[in-house]
Amino acid sequence: MPEIAVQKPIGIKRPNILARLFRALRLPTNDPFAVAGLLIYLIFIVTAIFADSIATHDPTEILYTPAYDLAADLRPGQDGFIMGTTSLGRDIFSQLVYGSRSALLIGVTAAFMVALIGSIIGLVAGYFGKWVDAVLMRLADIAFGIPFLPFVIVLAAFLKPSIWNVVIAMALVLWRDTARVIRSQVLTLRTRGYVEAARVAGSSDFKIILRHIAPNILPLSFLYGSIAIGWAILTEASISFLGFGDPDSISWGYMLQDAFASQALAKQAFYWFVPPGICIILVVSAGFFITRGYENILFPKLGR
Amino acid sequence: MTTPTNTVTTKKPDVLVSVNDAKLHYAVGGAFAAMRGKSTVVKAVDGVSFDIRRGESVGLLGESGCGKTSMGRLLLKLEDITGGSIHFGGEELSKIRRKELKSFRSKAQLIFQNPFDAINPRFSIRQTLAEPLENAGIPKAEREDRIIKSLELVKLPEPAQFLDRYPHQLSGGQLQRVVMARALILQPEFVVADEPVSMLDVSVRAGVLNVFRDVRDRLGLTAIYISHDLALVRYVCERTIVMYLGRIMEDGPTEDIVHEPLHPYTKALVAAVPVPNPDQSHDPLPIGRGAPDPRNPPSGCVFRDRCPAAHARCAAEVPQPRPVGSRLVACHLF
To answer: Which CATH fold topology does A47-63+99-302 show?
Structure first.
Protein backbone atom coordinates (compact mmCIF):
# COMPACT_ATOMS: atom_id res chain seq x y z
CA MET A 1 0.00 0.00 0.00
CA PRO A 2 2.56 2.57 -1.04
CA GLU A 3 -0.04 5.24 -1.74
CA ILE A 4 -0.16 6.21 1.92
CA ALA A 5 3.36 7.37 2.14
CA VAL A 6 3.38 9.09 -1.19
CA GLN A 7 2.02 12.25 0.38
CA LYS A 8 4.78 12.47 2.93
CA PRO A 9 6.70 15.72 2.77
CA ILE A 10 9.93 13.93 2.27
CA GLY A 11 10.29 13.67 -1.48
CA ILE A 12 11.85 16.38 -3.58
CA LYS A 13 10.08 17.37 -6.76
CA ARG A 14 11.53 15.28 -9.52
CA PRO A 15 9.84 13.91 -12.63
CA ASN A 16 10.09 10.29 -11.48
CA ILE A 17 9.19 10.96 -7.88
CA LEU A 18 6.74 8.06 -7.67
CA ALA A 19 9.28 5.53 -8.86
CA ARG A 20 11.93 6.99 -6.54
CA LEU A 21 9.62 6.86 -3.56
CA PHE A 22 8.55 3.35 -4.38
CA ARG A 23 12.19 2.33 -4.33
CA ALA A 24 12.87 4.31 -1.17
CA LEU A 25 10.07 2.51 0.65
CA ARG A 26 11.74 -0.82 -0.12
CA LEU A 27 8.54 -2.85 0.04
CA PRO A 28 9.40 -6.23 1.55
CA THR A 29 8.42 -8.34 -1.45
CA ASN A 30 10.71 -11.29 -0.72
CA ASP A 31 9.23 -12.19 2.65
CA PRO A 32 6.22 -14.55 2.19
CA PHE A 33 4.46 -13.17 5.27
CA ALA A 34 4.90 -9.61 4.09
CA VAL A 35 3.60 -10.51 0.65
CA ALA A 36 0.55 -12.15 2.26
CA GLY A 37 0.04 -8.96 4.28
CA LEU A 38 0.29 -6.79 1.20
CA LEU A 39 -2.20 -9.07 -0.61
CA ILE A 40 -4.69 -8.84 2.26
CA TYR A 41 -4.40 -5.07 2.18
CA LEU A 42 -4.89 -5.08 -1.56
CA ILE A 43 -8.08 -7.15 -1.27
CA PHE A 44 -9.51 -4.84 1.39
CA ILE A 45 -8.54 -1.72 -0.54
CA VAL A 46 -10.28 -3.00 -3.66
CA THR A 47 -13.34 -3.91 -1.56
CA ALA A 48 -13.40 -0.47 0.05
CA ILE A 49 -13.06 1.36 -3.26
CA PHE A 50 -15.76 -0.65 -5.03
CA ALA A 51 -17.99 -1.07 -1.97
CA ASP A 52 -20.92 0.52 -3.79
CA SER A 53 -20.97 -2.14 -6.47
CA ILE A 54 -19.96 -5.08 -4.28
CA ALA A 55 -22.54 -4.55 -1.54
CA THR A 56 -25.96 -5.99 -2.33
CA HIS A 57 -27.94 -3.60 -0.10
CA ASP A 58 -27.71 -0.29 1.68
CA PRO A 59 -26.02 -1.33 4.97
CA THR A 60 -28.29 0.85 7.10
CA GLU A 61 -31.59 0.15 5.32
CA ILE A 62 -34.15 -1.95 7.14
CA LEU A 63 -35.06 -4.72 4.74
CA TYR A 64 -38.13 -6.82 4.15
CA THR A 65 -38.60 -10.32 2.80
CA PRO A 66 -40.59 -10.89 -0.44
CA ALA A 67 -43.47 -11.83 1.89
CA TYR A 68 -43.28 -8.28 3.36
CA ASP A 69 -42.10 -9.49 6.75
CA LEU A 70 -39.22 -7.72 8.51
CA ALA A 71 -36.06 -9.48 7.27
CA ALA A 72 -34.76 -9.95 10.83
CA ASP A 73 -32.35 -12.68 11.98
CA LEU A 74 -32.28 -14.42 8.64
CA ARG A 75 -29.66 -17.14 8.24
CA PRO A 76 -27.00 -16.90 5.51
CA GLY A 77 -28.50 -17.66 2.12
CA GLN A 78 -32.07 -17.22 3.26
CA ASP A 79 -34.07 -15.02 0.86
CA GLY A 80 -30.87 -14.18 -1.01
CA PHE A 81 -29.06 -12.48 1.91
CA ILE A 82 -25.53 -13.82 1.47
CA MET A 83 -24.56 -13.62 5.14
CA GLY A 84 -28.00 -13.27 6.61
CA THR A 85 -29.42 -10.20 8.34
CA THR A 86 -29.24 -8.49 11.72
CA SER A 87 -32.03 -8.39 14.28
CA LEU A 88 -33.13 -5.07 12.80
CA GLY A 89 -33.30 -6.48 9.29
CA ARG A 90 -30.05 -5.12 7.87
CA ASP A 91 -27.86 -7.01 5.43
CA ILE A 92 -24.70 -8.31 7.17
CA PHE A 93 -22.71 -8.79 3.98
CA SER A 94 -23.24 -5.17 2.92
CA GLN A 95 -22.30 -3.97 6.39
CA LEU A 96 -19.11 -6.02 6.21
CA VAL A 97 -18.24 -4.55 2.82
CA TYR A 98 -18.90 -0.98 3.92
CA GLY A 99 -17.07 -1.68 7.18
CA SER A 100 -13.85 -2.11 5.21
CA ARG A 101 -14.28 1.44 4.00
CA SER A 102 -14.32 3.07 7.41
CA ALA A 103 -11.66 0.69 8.70
CA LEU A 104 -9.25 1.59 5.93
CA LEU A 105 -10.15 5.27 6.06
CA ILE A 106 -9.35 5.39 9.76
CA GLY A 107 -6.37 3.11 9.44
CA VAL A 108 -4.77 4.95 6.59
CA THR A 109 -5.33 8.48 7.90
CA ALA A 110 -4.22 7.54 11.40
CA ALA A 111 -1.13 5.79 10.04
CA PHE A 112 -0.37 8.77 7.87
CA MET A 113 -0.71 11.16 10.81
CA VAL A 114 1.34 8.99 13.14
CA ALA A 115 4.11 8.44 10.60
CA LEU A 116 4.14 12.08 9.52
CA ILE A 117 4.08 13.69 12.96
CA GLY A 118 6.40 11.08 14.45
CA SER A 119 8.90 11.41 11.62
CA ILE A 120 9.00 15.18 11.71
CA ILE A 121 9.38 15.33 15.49
CA GLY A 122 11.99 12.56 15.43
CA LEU A 123 13.96 14.27 12.67
CA VAL A 124 13.90 17.67 14.32
CA ALA A 125 14.72 16.36 17.81
CA GLY A 126 17.50 14.09 16.59
CA TYR A 127 19.08 16.55 14.20
CA PHE A 128 19.02 19.74 16.25
CA GLY A 129 19.60 18.10 19.63
CA LYS A 130 20.18 20.29 22.68
CA TRP A 131 17.10 22.04 24.07
CA VAL A 132 14.94 21.26 21.01
CA ASP A 133 15.54 17.58 21.63
CA ALA A 134 14.98 17.95 25.37
CA VAL A 135 11.62 19.73 24.92
CA LEU A 136 10.31 17.34 22.26
CA MET A 137 11.38 14.23 24.14
CA ARG A 138 9.76 15.45 27.38
CA LEU A 139 6.59 15.94 25.33
CA ALA A 140 6.99 12.36 24.14
CA ASP A 141 7.35 11.25 27.75
CA ILE A 142 4.07 12.98 28.56
CA ALA A 143 2.43 11.28 25.57
CA PHE A 144 3.77 7.97 26.86
CA GLY A 145 2.07 8.64 30.16
CA ILE A 146 -1.40 9.04 28.64
CA PRO A 147 -3.47 5.83 28.71
CA PHE A 148 -4.67 5.52 25.18
CA LEU A 149 -8.17 4.01 25.29
CA PRO A 150 -9.48 6.19 28.15
CA PHE A 151 -8.04 9.19 26.29
CA VAL A 152 -10.07 8.32 23.20
CA ILE A 153 -13.22 7.95 25.33
CA VAL A 154 -12.66 11.33 26.98
CA LEU A 155 -12.06 12.86 23.57
CA ALA A 156 -15.29 11.30 22.27
CA ALA A 157 -17.09 12.84 25.24
CA PHE A 158 -15.81 16.32 24.41
CA LEU A 159 -16.22 16.11 20.66
CA LYS A 160 -19.27 14.66 19.03
CA PRO A 161 -19.04 10.93 18.34
CA SER A 162 -17.22 10.45 15.08
CA ILE A 163 -14.85 7.94 13.56
CA TRP A 164 -12.30 10.77 13.34
CA ASN A 165 -11.93 10.86 17.14
CA VAL A 166 -9.72 7.82 16.86
CA VAL A 167 -7.59 9.50 14.23
CA ILE A 168 -7.25 12.68 16.30
CA ALA A 169 -6.38 10.70 19.41
CA MET A 170 -3.76 8.70 17.57
CA ALA A 171 -2.27 11.82 16.05
CA LEU A 172 -2.10 13.41 19.52
CA VAL A 173 -0.68 10.42 21.36
CA LEU A 174 0.79 7.67 19.21
CA TRP A 175 3.43 9.76 17.42
CA ARG A 176 5.59 9.11 20.48
CA ASP A 177 6.86 5.65 19.48
CA THR A 178 7.68 6.71 15.93
CA ALA A 179 9.37 9.89 17.09
CA ARG A 180 11.53 8.09 19.66
CA VAL A 181 12.77 5.47 17.24
CA ILE A 182 13.37 7.87 14.39
CA ARG A 183 15.19 10.28 16.70
CA SER A 184 17.62 7.56 17.74
CA GLN A 185 18.20 6.66 14.11
CA VAL A 186 18.84 10.31 13.25
CA LEU A 187 21.33 10.56 16.11
CA THR A 188 23.53 8.01 14.39
CA LEU A 189 22.90 9.36 10.89
CA ARG A 190 23.87 12.93 11.71
CA THR A 191 27.38 11.87 12.71
CA ARG A 192 27.96 10.34 9.30
CA GLY A 193 30.68 11.97 7.25
CA TYR A 194 28.41 12.87 4.37
CA VAL A 195 26.14 14.90 6.63
CA GLU A 196 29.12 16.93 7.76
CA ALA A 197 30.26 17.13 4.16
CA ALA A 198 26.91 18.62 3.20
CA ARG A 199 27.32 21.19 5.95
CA VAL A 200 30.78 22.10 4.70
CA ALA A 201 29.32 22.32 1.19
CA GLY A 202 27.03 25.05 2.51
CA SER A 203 23.74 23.13 2.66
CA SER A 204 21.14 24.46 5.07
CA ASP A 205 19.91 22.35 7.97
CA PHE A 206 16.57 21.94 6.20
CA LYS A 207 18.25 20.68 3.07
CA ILE A 208 20.49 18.30 4.99
CA ILE A 209 17.50 16.81 6.81
CA LEU A 210 15.49 16.50 3.62
CA ARG A 211 18.14 15.11 1.32
CA HIS A 212 20.64 13.29 3.47
CA ILE A 213 18.75 12.09 6.52
CA ALA A 214 15.05 11.68 5.70
CA PRO A 215 15.54 9.14 2.87
CA ASN A 216 17.30 6.86 5.33
CA ILE A 217 14.45 6.87 7.84
CA LEU A 218 11.63 6.55 5.30
CA PRO A 219 11.35 2.74 5.63
CA LEU A 220 11.30 3.17 9.40
CA SER A 221 8.41 5.63 9.31
CA PHE A 222 6.58 3.35 6.90
CA LEU A 223 7.11 0.51 9.35
CA TYR A 224 5.54 2.51 12.15
CA GLY A 225 2.80 3.60 9.78
CA SER A 226 1.85 -0.01 9.09
CA ILE A 227 1.77 -0.78 12.80
CA ALA A 228 -0.47 2.26 13.29
CA ILE A 229 -2.97 1.00 10.70
CA GLY A 230 -3.65 -2.07 12.84
CA TRP A 231 -3.77 -0.02 16.01
CA ALA A 232 -6.25 2.45 14.57
CA ILE A 233 -8.63 -0.24 13.33
CA LEU A 234 -8.39 -2.09 16.62
CA THR A 235 -9.01 1.08 18.60
CA GLU A 236 -11.96 2.08 16.47
CA ALA A 237 -13.45 -1.38 16.95
CA SER A 238 -12.93 -1.19 20.72
CA ILE A 239 -14.44 2.27 20.94
CA SER A 240 -17.43 1.27 18.84
CA PHE A 241 -17.89 -1.90 20.84
CA LEU A 242 -17.87 0.13 24.04
CA GLY A 243 -20.58 2.28 22.51
CA PHE A 244 -18.58 5.49 22.03
CA GLY A 245 -18.40 5.12 18.28
CA ASP A 246 -20.14 6.97 15.51
CA PRO A 247 -23.69 5.60 15.24
CA ASP A 248 -24.05 6.88 11.68
CA SER A 249 -21.17 5.04 10.08
CA ILE A 250 -20.90 1.32 9.67
CA SER A 251 -17.72 -0.19 10.96
CA TRP A 252 -16.72 -3.68 12.04
CA GLY A 253 -16.62 -2.56 15.64
CA TYR A 254 -20.14 -1.17 15.26
CA MET A 255 -21.27 -4.54 13.85
CA LEU A 256 -19.81 -6.36 16.85
CA GLN A 257 -21.49 -3.93 19.22
CA ASP A 258 -24.80 -4.36 17.40
CA ALA A 259 -24.49 -8.15 17.55
CA PHE A 260 -23.54 -8.01 21.22
CA ALA A 261 -26.47 -5.75 22.10
CA SER A 262 -28.87 -7.94 20.16
CA GLN A 263 -27.64 -11.07 21.96
CA ALA A 264 -26.44 -12.66 18.75
CA LEU A 265 -24.51 -15.28 20.67
CA ALA A 266 -27.66 -16.52 22.40
CA LYS A 267 -29.28 -16.75 18.99
CA GLN A 268 -26.34 -18.79 17.71
CA ALA A 269 -25.91 -16.11 15.01
CA PHE A 270 -22.23 -16.79 14.41
CA TYR A 271 -22.63 -15.54 10.83
CA TRP A 272 -23.21 -12.11 12.37
CA PHE A 273 -20.24 -11.52 14.65
CA VAL A 274 -17.60 -13.91 13.31
CA PRO A 275 -17.07 -12.21 9.91
CA PRO A 276 -16.30 -8.71 11.25
CA GLY A 277 -14.03 -10.32 13.85
CA ILE A 278 -12.15 -12.17 11.13
CA CYS A 279 -11.87 -9.01 9.05
CA ILE A 280 -10.35 -7.11 11.99
CA ILE A 281 -7.93 -9.95 12.65
CA LEU A 282 -6.96 -10.13 8.97
CA VAL A 283 -6.27 -6.43 8.52
CA VAL A 284 -4.44 -6.03 11.83
CA SER A 285 -2.29 -9.10 11.29
CA ALA A 286 -1.63 -8.04 7.69
CA GLY A 287 -0.12 -4.86 9.13
CA PHE A 288 2.10 -6.88 11.43
CA PHE A 289 3.13 -9.24 8.63
CA ILE A 290 4.32 -6.27 6.61
CA THR A 291 6.07 -4.95 9.71
CA ARG A 292 7.83 -8.29 10.00
CA GLY A 293 9.09 -8.01 6.46
CA TYR A 294 10.37 -4.52 7.16
CA GLU A 295 12.14 -5.75 10.24
CA ASN A 296 14.14 -8.13 8.06
CA ILE A 297 15.13 -5.27 5.80
CA LEU A 298 15.91 -2.76 8.52
CA PHE A 299 17.62 -5.06 10.97
CA PRO A 300 19.01 -7.89 8.86
CA LYS A 301 21.36 -8.99 11.64
CA LEU A 302 18.53 -10.05 13.92
CA GLY A 303 18.08 -13.12 11.73
CA ARG A 304 15.09 -15.35 11.97
CA MET B 1 55.21 34.38 14.98
CA THR B 2 55.88 33.84 11.32
CA THR B 3 59.28 34.27 9.79
CA PRO B 4 59.70 35.58 6.29
CA THR B 5 62.22 32.84 5.46
CA ASN B 6 59.58 30.24 4.62
CA THR B 7 57.62 32.33 2.18
CA VAL B 8 56.63 30.36 -0.88
CA THR B 9 54.25 32.65 -2.67
CA THR B 10 55.29 35.66 -4.62
CA LYS B 11 52.32 37.44 -3.12
CA LYS B 12 52.59 39.75 -0.18
CA PRO B 13 52.90 37.43 2.81
CA ASP B 14 49.69 38.51 4.46
CA VAL B 15 47.89 36.48 7.04
CA LEU B 16 44.77 34.56 5.96
CA VAL B 17 43.99 32.66 9.13
CA SER B 18 44.81 33.96 12.56
CA VAL B 19 44.19 31.83 15.63
CA ASN B 20 44.43 33.58 18.96
CA ASP B 21 44.30 31.57 22.19
CA ALA B 22 41.64 29.25 20.74
CA LYS B 23 39.92 26.92 23.17
CA LEU B 24 37.46 24.09 22.59
CA HIS B 25 36.21 22.44 25.75
CA TYR B 26 33.64 19.69 26.05
CA ALA B 27 31.69 18.93 29.18
CA VAL B 28 31.72 15.21 29.83
CA GLY B 29 28.99 13.57 31.89
CA GLY B 30 25.35 14.60 32.06
CA ALA B 31 23.26 16.78 34.33
CA PHE B 32 23.44 14.26 37.17
CA ALA B 33 27.22 14.22 37.11
CA ALA B 34 27.19 18.02 37.25
CA MET B 35 24.88 17.96 40.27
CA ARG B 36 27.23 15.65 42.14
CA GLY B 37 30.14 17.83 41.10
CA LYS B 38 31.57 15.02 39.04
CA SER B 39 31.33 16.52 35.60
CA THR B 40 34.66 17.05 33.94
CA VAL B 41 35.82 19.13 31.04
CA VAL B 42 37.85 17.73 28.19
CA LYS B 43 40.06 20.42 26.76
CA ALA B 44 40.34 19.26 23.17
CA VAL B 45 42.01 22.53 22.19
CA ASP B 46 43.42 24.65 24.98
CA GLY B 47 44.97 28.01 24.24
CA VAL B 48 46.32 27.53 20.73
CA SER B 49 47.67 30.48 18.75
CA PHE B 50 49.17 30.61 15.28
CA ASP B 51 48.93 32.50 12.01
CA ILE B 52 48.77 31.08 8.53
CA ARG B 53 49.85 33.24 5.65
CA ARG B 54 48.22 33.09 2.26
CA GLY B 55 49.61 30.25 0.17
CA GLU B 56 51.24 28.56 3.12
CA SER B 57 50.92 24.83 3.81
CA VAL B 58 50.94 23.92 7.44
CA GLY B 59 51.07 20.42 8.85
CA LEU B 60 49.21 19.79 12.09
CA LEU B 61 51.01 16.88 13.68
CA GLY B 62 50.25 14.84 16.74
CA GLU B 63 49.09 11.47 17.99
CA SER B 64 45.41 10.58 18.14
CA GLY B 65 43.44 12.56 20.71
CA CYS B 66 45.84 15.50 20.69
CA GLY B 67 43.20 17.88 19.36
CA LYS B 68 44.43 18.27 15.82
CA THR B 69 41.10 17.31 14.24
CA SER B 70 39.24 19.54 16.72
CA MET B 71 41.53 22.39 15.72
CA GLY B 72 40.72 21.75 12.07
CA ARG B 73 37.00 21.75 12.81
CA LEU B 74 37.32 25.02 14.71
CA LEU B 75 39.05 26.61 11.72
CA LEU B 76 36.05 25.67 9.54
CA LYS B 77 33.47 26.77 12.09
CA LEU B 78 32.16 23.24 12.45
CA GLU B 79 32.48 23.59 16.21
CA ASP B 80 31.60 26.59 18.30
CA ILE B 81 34.70 27.99 19.89
CA THR B 82 34.76 27.94 23.71
CA GLY B 83 37.26 30.76 24.11
CA GLY B 84 39.69 32.89 22.16
CA SER B 85 39.16 33.84 18.56
CA ILE B 86 39.84 32.77 15.01
CA HIS B 87 39.99 35.29 12.18
CA PHE B 88 39.62 34.26 8.58
CA GLY B 89 40.54 36.93 6.06
CA GLY B 90 40.13 39.55 8.78
CA GLU B 91 36.68 38.32 9.76
CA GLU B 92 36.06 36.71 13.13
CA LEU B 93 34.49 33.27 12.69
CA SER B 94 32.24 33.42 15.75
CA LYS B 95 30.66 36.62 14.39
CA ILE B 96 29.68 35.12 11.05
CA ARG B 97 25.91 35.10 10.80
CA ARG B 98 23.75 32.45 9.18
CA LYS B 99 23.43 34.43 5.95
CA GLU B 100 27.15 35.03 5.55
CA LEU B 101 27.94 31.43 6.38
CA LYS B 102 27.40 30.30 2.80
CA SER B 103 30.05 32.64 1.49
CA PHE B 104 32.47 31.45 4.18
CA ARG B 105 31.71 27.85 3.26
CA SER B 106 32.65 28.50 -0.33
CA LYS B 107 36.01 29.95 0.78
CA ALA B 108 37.05 27.37 3.36
CA GLN B 109 36.73 23.69 2.64
CA LEU B 110 37.44 20.34 4.25
CA ILE B 111 38.90 17.19 2.72
CA PHE B 112 37.60 14.29 4.72
CA GLN B 113 39.56 11.48 6.27
CA ASN B 114 37.26 8.63 5.30
CA PRO B 115 36.10 8.86 1.68
CA PHE B 116 33.80 5.86 2.14
CA ASP B 117 31.78 7.80 4.70
CA ALA B 118 32.08 11.30 3.27
CA ILE B 119 29.86 10.70 0.23
CA ASN B 120 26.18 9.89 0.60
CA PRO B 121 25.82 6.34 -0.74
CA ARG B 122 22.46 7.28 -2.29
CA PHE B 123 23.98 10.09 -4.34
CA SER B 124 25.60 9.68 -7.71
CA ILE B 125 28.96 11.40 -8.23
CA ARG B 126 27.16 14.07 -10.23
CA GLN B 127 24.71 14.78 -7.40
CA THR B 128 27.55 14.78 -4.87
CA LEU B 129 29.52 17.38 -6.77
CA ALA B 130 26.46 19.44 -7.70
CA GLU B 131 25.53 20.03 -4.05
CA PRO B 132 28.08 22.77 -3.28
CA LEU B 133 27.41 24.39 -6.67
CA GLU B 134 23.69 24.40 -5.96
CA ASN B 135 24.27 26.03 -2.58
CA ALA B 136 26.53 28.66 -4.09
CA GLY B 137 23.83 29.52 -6.62
CA ILE B 138 25.76 28.45 -9.72
CA PRO B 139 23.29 28.21 -12.62
CA LYS B 140 22.44 24.70 -13.82
CA ALA B 141 23.97 25.18 -17.23
CA GLU B 142 27.41 25.84 -15.76
CA ARG B 143 27.39 23.03 -13.26
CA GLU B 144 28.17 20.10 -15.55
CA ASP B 145 31.16 21.92 -16.95
CA ARG B 146 32.55 22.76 -13.53
CA ILE B 147 32.00 19.23 -12.25
CA ILE B 148 34.02 17.82 -15.15
CA LYS B 149 36.72 20.44 -14.68
CA SER B 150 37.12 19.76 -10.99
CA LEU B 151 37.32 16.01 -11.61
CA GLU B 152 40.02 16.67 -14.22
CA LEU B 153 41.81 18.82 -11.67
CA VAL B 154 42.12 15.88 -9.29
CA LYS B 155 43.28 13.69 -12.18
CA LEU B 156 40.38 11.30 -12.30
CA PRO B 157 40.75 9.81 -15.79
CA GLU B 158 37.77 10.15 -18.12
CA PRO B 159 35.63 12.00 -15.57
CA ALA B 160 32.48 11.89 -17.69
CA GLN B 161 32.11 8.14 -17.19
CA PHE B 162 32.01 8.55 -13.40
CA LEU B 163 29.21 11.09 -13.22
CA ASP B 164 26.33 8.62 -13.01
CA ARG B 165 28.10 6.09 -10.85
CA TYR B 166 27.43 5.60 -7.19
CA PRO B 167 30.08 5.61 -4.44
CA HIS B 168 30.10 1.84 -3.99
CA GLN B 169 31.17 1.46 -7.61
CA LEU B 170 34.37 3.46 -7.04
CA SER B 171 37.64 2.49 -5.39
CA GLY B 172 38.99 4.25 -2.31
CA GLY B 173 41.50 6.26 -4.32
CA GLN B 174 38.84 7.34 -6.82
CA LEU B 175 36.47 8.28 -3.99
CA GLN B 176 39.11 10.36 -2.26
CA ARG B 177 39.66 12.21 -5.52
CA VAL B 178 35.93 12.87 -5.72
CA VAL B 179 36.04 14.14 -2.13
CA MET B 180 38.88 16.46 -3.12
CA ALA B 181 37.03 17.57 -6.23
CA ARG B 182 34.03 18.46 -4.09
CA ALA B 183 36.22 20.49 -1.75
CA LEU B 184 37.84 22.32 -4.65
CA ILE B 185 34.84 22.83 -6.91
CA LEU B 186 33.97 26.23 -5.44
CA GLN B 187 37.60 27.37 -5.76
CA PRO B 188 38.22 27.91 -2.06
CA GLU B 189 41.13 29.91 -0.67
CA PHE B 190 41.66 27.64 2.29
CA VAL B 191 41.53 23.87 2.61
CA VAL B 192 41.79 21.70 5.70
CA ALA B 193 42.83 18.17 4.82
CA ASP B 194 42.12 15.83 7.72
CA GLU B 195 44.35 12.79 7.26
CA PRO B 196 43.18 12.47 3.65
CA VAL B 197 45.13 9.30 2.92
CA SER B 198 44.93 7.41 6.21
CA MET B 199 41.99 5.27 5.03
CA LEU B 200 43.58 4.45 1.68
CA ASP B 201 45.75 1.55 0.62
CA VAL B 202 49.42 2.39 0.71
CA SER B 203 49.58 1.77 -3.03
CA VAL B 204 47.28 4.67 -3.88
CA ARG B 205 48.44 7.08 -1.17
CA ALA B 206 51.25 8.54 -3.20
CA GLY B 207 48.94 9.26 -6.12
CA VAL B 208 46.41 11.10 -3.95
CA LEU B 209 49.15 13.00 -2.09
CA ASN B 210 50.72 14.10 -5.37
CA VAL B 211 47.36 15.30 -6.61
CA PHE B 212 46.91 17.25 -3.38
CA ARG B 213 50.32 18.88 -3.71
CA ASP B 214 49.87 19.59 -7.35
CA VAL B 215 46.43 21.16 -6.95
CA ARG B 216 47.57 23.22 -3.99
CA ASP B 217 50.48 24.67 -5.94
CA ARG B 218 48.42 25.23 -9.05
CA LEU B 219 45.60 27.04 -7.27
CA GLY B 220 47.86 28.72 -4.73
CA LEU B 221 45.79 27.27 -1.90
CA THR B 222 46.39 27.91 1.72
CA ALA B 223 46.25 24.50 3.34
CA ILE B 224 46.31 22.76 6.67
CA TYR B 225 47.31 19.13 6.52
CA ILE B 226 46.33 17.19 9.62
CA SER B 227 48.22 13.98 10.20
CA HIS B 228 49.87 11.76 12.75
CA ASP B 229 52.51 10.78 10.24
CA LEU B 230 55.58 13.00 10.18
CA ALA B 231 56.73 11.53 6.86
CA LEU B 232 53.51 12.60 5.12
CA VAL B 233 53.60 16.06 6.66
CA ARG B 234 57.19 16.42 5.53
CA TYR B 235 56.19 15.47 2.00
CA VAL B 236 53.40 18.03 1.82
CA CYS B 237 54.08 20.95 4.15
CA GLU B 238 56.86 23.46 4.58
CA ARG B 239 55.81 24.31 8.11
CA THR B 240 54.71 22.01 10.91
CA ILE B 241 52.83 22.59 14.13
CA VAL B 242 53.21 19.80 16.68
CA MET B 243 50.28 19.42 19.07
CA TYR B 244 49.95 17.45 22.25
CA LEU B 245 46.85 17.28 24.48
CA GLY B 246 45.29 20.38 22.99
CA ARG B 247 48.41 22.54 23.09
CA ILE B 248 51.11 23.50 20.67
CA MET B 249 54.50 22.00 21.54
CA GLU B 250 56.56 23.20 18.62
CA ASP B 251 55.92 25.29 15.54
CA GLY B 252 58.42 25.82 12.77
CA PRO B 253 59.80 24.89 9.34
CA THR B 254 59.27 21.17 8.71
CA GLU B 255 62.84 20.44 7.66
CA ASP B 256 64.25 22.04 10.82
CA ILE B 257 61.86 20.02 12.96
CA VAL B 258 62.73 16.78 11.22
CA HIS B 259 66.47 17.27 11.34
CA GLU B 260 66.79 18.88 14.71
CA PRO B 261 63.72 18.49 16.88
CA LEU B 262 63.91 20.70 19.95
CA HIS B 263 60.92 19.84 22.12
CA PRO B 264 61.27 16.46 23.87
CA TYR B 265 57.91 15.40 22.46
CA THR B 266 58.91 16.25 18.91
CA LYS B 267 62.15 14.33 19.48
CA ALA B 268 60.12 11.28 20.43
CA LEU B 269 57.90 11.70 17.36
CA VAL B 270 60.89 11.94 15.04
CA ALA B 271 62.47 8.92 16.70
CA ALA B 272 59.27 6.96 16.14
CA VAL B 273 59.37 7.32 12.35
CA PRO B 274 60.30 3.90 10.98
CA VAL B 275 63.51 3.79 8.99
CA PRO B 276 63.62 1.45 5.97
CA ASN B 277 66.87 -0.11 7.07
CA PRO B 278 66.76 -3.39 9.01
CA ASP B 279 70.33 -3.00 10.27
CA GLN B 280 69.67 0.28 12.01
CA SER B 281 68.65 -0.33 15.58
CA HIS B 282 65.24 1.08 16.25
CA ASP B 283 64.94 2.55 19.71
CA PRO B 284 61.58 2.10 21.33
CA LEU B 285 59.77 5.32 22.14
CA PRO B 286 61.58 6.98 25.02
CA ILE B 287 58.29 8.35 26.30
CA GLY B 288 56.25 5.16 26.60
CA ARG B 289 52.95 4.63 24.89
CA GLY B 290 49.61 6.26 25.41
CA ALA B 291 48.82 9.83 26.33
CA PRO B 292 47.33 10.53 29.79
CA ASP B 293 43.59 10.78 30.31
CA PRO B 294 42.57 14.05 28.62
CA ARG B 295 39.97 14.61 31.34
CA ASN B 296 42.74 14.83 33.87
CA PRO B 297 45.90 16.20 32.25
CA PRO B 298 49.03 16.84 34.33
CA SER B 299 49.48 20.25 35.89
CA GLY B 300 51.92 22.68 34.35
CA CYS B 301 53.32 21.24 31.16
CA VAL B 302 50.86 18.63 29.83
CA PHE B 303 53.73 16.51 28.55
CA ARG B 304 55.69 16.33 31.81
CA ASP B 305 54.57 12.87 32.97
CA ARG B 306 56.02 11.30 29.81
CA CYS B 307 58.91 13.68 29.39
CA PRO B 308 62.40 12.28 30.03
CA ALA B 309 63.68 15.77 30.86
CA ALA B 310 60.93 16.86 33.25
CA HIS B 311 61.97 18.86 36.29
CA ALA B 312 60.26 20.66 39.16
CA ARG B 313 59.36 23.76 37.17
CA CYS B 314 57.40 21.69 34.63
CA ALA B 315 54.77 20.75 37.22
CA ALA B 316 54.37 24.27 38.50
CA GLU B 317 54.27 26.40 35.40
CA VAL B 318 52.71 26.05 31.96
CA PRO B 319 55.46 26.64 29.40
CA GLN B 320 54.64 29.39 26.93
CA PRO B 321 55.76 29.14 23.29
CA ARG B 322 59.09 30.96 22.98
CA PRO B 323 60.99 31.73 19.79
CA VAL B 324 64.03 29.54 19.33
CA GLY B 325 65.73 30.36 16.04
CA SER B 326 63.15 29.96 13.29
CA ARG B 327 60.79 28.15 15.62
CA LEU B 328 58.45 28.46 18.57
CA VAL B 329 58.94 25.91 21.31
CA ALA B 330 56.79 25.49 24.40
CA CYS B 331 59.22 23.94 26.83
CA HIS B 332 61.05 25.12 29.95
CA LEU B 333 64.31 23.76 28.56
CA PHE B 334 64.47 26.66 26.14
So the answer is: MetI-like fold (1.10.3720)
